[in-house]
Amino acid sequence: MDITTEGATLVLHGDFDVRSTGEVRNAIYERLEGHDEDVVVDMSEVETIDLTALKVLAAATHRASRAGHHVTLRNCGPAVRRMLHLSRLAHVLEVERRAATA
């Protein structure tokens, strides 16, 4: 898992699973604590995701909301969206809606 930062946006690259959850959790918490702003997690380069990774995102969302901030998922591909719905975490996590195209 590679993580790049673009302002308040964390861009994840690769497999987001049990092996990378600590790294992603630390990156999100660092952004929440080090900066007084919301965090966007860009998932466009995430190839696979598992339930452990989704639980990390849910915990980060809860922590952010207690501090008056948001963690928003952006560019979730079909595999990520499928896992969000199967895990029933789609209603817990804030997922940015895509604009409709003509």
TrEMBL record:
InterPro entries associated with the record: MlaB-like_STAS, MlaB_ABC_Transporter, STAS_dom, STAS_dom_sf
Residues annotated as domain STAS: 1-102
Entry superkingdom: Bacteria
Alphabetical list of Pfam families matching this protein: STAS_2 (PF13466)
Name of the protein this chain belongs to: Anti-sigma factor antagonist
